[in-house]
Fold:
Amino acid sequence: MSNIILHGYWRSSAAYRVRIALALKGVAYTSVPHDLRADEQRDPAYLAIAPHGLVPAIEHDGGILIESPAILEWIEARWPDPSLLPSSPEDAAMVRAIAALVGCDIHPLNNLRVLNRLRSQFDASNAQVKEWIAHWVGQGFGALDQIIGRVGGRFAFGDSPTLADCYLVPQVYNAERYNVDLSAFPRVLAAADAARALPAFAAAHPDLQPDFK
Structure:
């Protein structure tokens, strides 16, 4: 049995990123789910692991890792083959920039806790929440489509999957789940579809996780 424990939730895009990276590296792990819709991430036992009350978190060899960007960098350093970062420092910086565009500029604004706050504090309707999501996805994907046009190949960067694709695929999944029209972003969709065709990405899909409901 693996000594890696991945605390996550089947529909968490941040946990989805980590599952993709582990699958690409061929690293086995044990999944421990926490239902975010039921606030299980606020259970004291989990807060003792991850005080910020978010997923994912990883337990490994007595240590604890939180926050998907840090976890992904740890995975890349711990299991360097196959590499998810280009060898050139400039190219690696571009891959990280694509990842940050998704992870910093799009995802946080559409996180479940933000959407719940819109509903509870500002009485946002479902239609208004969907418009909010579509707005920020459109802003981010508009920029990302141009960037992929410059540096993309088969995937978001070049012709091999990178950390950029680990971020891109879950964000496209989220956008599609909310029926966001992505027709204006053909390069984003092409890169995501190429990645989703790979077995590692397919295995990490939310619908195939043990806590899928």
Summary: Residues 14 and 48 are 20 Å apart (CA to CA). The chain has a mean pLDDT of 97. The radius of gyration is 17 Å. The chain has nine helices and four strands.
